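This follows on from our talk about sequence and fold. Go ahead and set the record down below:
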Amino acid sequence: MPSDRRATGLTAAAEIVDFFPRRTPEVAMNPPAPSGYARPPRRSTGVVPATSTLRVHLAGQLRRLLDAADVTCRWARDAERLLPELLGPAAGRPLGAGPLSPSFVSDDHSPAELSVSFAADGAPTVRVLVEPGCGAETFADGGRAGLRALDRVARCWAVDTEPVARVTDLFLPAAARGPFSLWCAMDLRRAGPPGVKVYLNPEAHGGDRAAEVVEEALTRFGFRPAWRALTARAASWCPDRGRLVFFALDLGHWQEPRVKLYIAHHAFSVEEAEAAAGLLPGGGPRRVGDFCRTIGGGARRFDGLPLVSCLSFTRRDRERPSGHTLHVPVRDYARDDRVARDRAAAVLGARGGDVALLDKALAAMTSRRLSDGVGLISYVSLARSTDGPPRVTVYLSPEAYAVHPPH
């Protein structure tokens, strides 16, 4: 594989799934790590006490991150209270005991990820992503745990989960396959109730059926024309190197809820990334290319962890995407987090983003020197839509169990 570290967040399915056996009717949640693939992580000293628990560690990071972004409304406090419940049995486990089971949300198997989204003309938002089923015996059990966690969030914030029920048979079958079943995210804002996001696995019936599953899911939401248009152009931007890794739904309090499709692009060049960005009406692919070059440190081709595109669809257009986001796995193309921070700051500064908030966010996550490790900043993304300004998001790993040394 291109990287000797565990895939994180957006590239998880693309990087890992082929290494685990396809066992039916149910697949174990804790298969052995593939020989020669995962580099044993090295724990930093004096950063996270081994006697602390995942609940304490993540709750502290979330609280400090919310304070740094001035997201202090009552809904943010609800999220702090909900977080331990969403973590399930992993919540009270001492960090020194290691992760309860493999989770591909973060490189060190932390079943959570935090992020801050910066908009040039608006307030920042803080997002927390959790895998509620981490530690379940099977992927099917993990899916059921995810639905129970989603129900707790829905009851707290009066969120309608009907869109998930509409596609449960597609993404949460009895014989679900890996590497995950359901992830849940809370989008926390300075004012107003939060949005909820659900991430589902297109390969739940096997990798060879992912396209079939996604086509049927888009059809149920009224986007079959968009799927036909996407596949018609696939050869120009995804030549046998694209993988459907997430199908996501916006639930609850959104101005315009989205249905989203995530595609990992293996060994993509900057020019190919620009071509993929061209799927969004209105132009701007060159802006995406410049973003790639800055975050990737001048890389012309991303042969390590892959770039990931997210195409979002709304009722405004049944045939074309209403939004496009490119995620660059900066941790695989930077020596350490100091370098990754400087690249993210360069992008933010050029777009009128709050660089000071970026530094506050990093300080809220860890007390270690940024030059002492790599992976705290896992991704940086650029989101564009047909009806709003661009947005930059910085994704942050909890580093609960390990800190990877600099390259």
Remarks:
- The two ends are 16 Å apart (CA to CA).
- Confidence is low (pLDDT under 50) at residues 1-46.
- The chain is about 30% helix and 20% strand.
- The first strand starts at residue 112 and ends at 119.
